[in-house]
Write a structure and sequence with these properties.
Catalytic activity: L-cysteinyl-[protein] + hexadecanoyl-CoA = S-hexadecanoyl-L-cysteinyl-[protein] + CoA
Order of helices and strands: HHHHEEEEEEHH
Subcellular location: Membrane
Strand order of the largest sheet: 1-2
Oligomer: single chain
Keywords: Acyltransferase, Membrane, Transferase, Transmembrane, Transmembrane helix
Pfam family, one: DHHC
Membrane topology: Multi-pass membrane protein
């Protein structure tokens, strides 16, 4: 697969070839070269938009091709940022639970409910961290590099290796993945044959943790919401009192 430097060098070589000044013939050939260059780009555009084999999908693919290139090349580098965001956000929620939610549980619920909250909350956190670590560090599975004599196995057009059934080429990892589901930027890894169960378990325990935190912090949310309503009501009363005093003074 050729890199972007190769394509850039080809484009620059094309422009230099057309704009090059010929010392033997003088500078009179520049308008003709510009005219030839303009005709060349017209042929390219007409072959794209006025071709009988071209449709709107092909034109849209050509327009969005730079965006696809940016996604394929930048997602690989932003994967570390997304993993750091997951760690920071999850840690912030855990800190808020320890500092704000647990004191309310200790002062409100009986002993058996406190024990249940402690056991379930730490078990859910342990399962969440374990499955996220395994989904991030486990290889999704790569097809064997050796050639096979099985006629039903095809070859990947990009990495030229045997491509078993349900195997897809990841443009971000630049490799074929066994039973590829998708490339997850939050894991900085592909979801494939060997880490699909860890990814599913991570999503399941994350959902359970969100539900648990929402139910546990319901009273805090209602108190904060009522406090906002009370403050808004007091602010409205103060504004009405100020308007009334202005009318009296006037």
């Amino acid at each position: 697969m050729r890199s972007w430097r190769w394509f850039l060098s080809r484009v620059m070589r094309l422009f230099l070839r057309w704009f090059r000044l010929c010392p033997r013939r003088g500078r009179r050939k520049r308008p003709s070269r510009l005219r030839d260059l303009w005709n060349y780009w017209r042929v390219l555009l007409k072959s794209l938009y006025y071709n009988v084999l071209t449709n709107s999908d092909t034109a849209l693919d050509c327009v969005f091709e730079p965006i696809y290139w940016l996604v394929d090349n930048m997602t690989r580098w932003f994967g570390v940022v997304f993993v750091s965001l997951v760690i920071v956000l999850t840690s912030s929620v855990v800190i808020i639970v320890y500092l704000c939610v647990l004191p309310i549980i200790f002062s409100t619920y009986p002993v058996h409910w406190i024990l249940w909250h402690l056991c379930y909350g730490h078990w859910n956190l342990l399962m969440l961290v374990y499955h996220y670590y395994k989904a991030t560090t486990t290889y999704p599975g790569f097809p064997p590099q050796e050639k096979t004599d099985i006629p039903t196995v095809t070859l990947c057009k990009k990495c030229i290796v045997p491509k078993p059934a349900r195997t897809h080429h990841c443009s971000i990892c630049s490799r074929c993945i066994l039973k590829m589901d998708h490339h997850c930027p939050w894991l900085n890894n592909c979801v494939g044959h060997f880490n699909h169960r860890y990814f599913f378990s991570f999503c399941l325990f994350m959902t359970m943790a969100c539900i648990y935190c929402s139910i546990s912090a319901k009273d805090m949310f209602l108190d904060a919401y009522n406090a906002i309503e009370v403050s808004l009501h007091e602010l409205l009363l103060w504004s009405e009192a100020l308007n009334a005093s202005d009318r009296v003074l006037c």
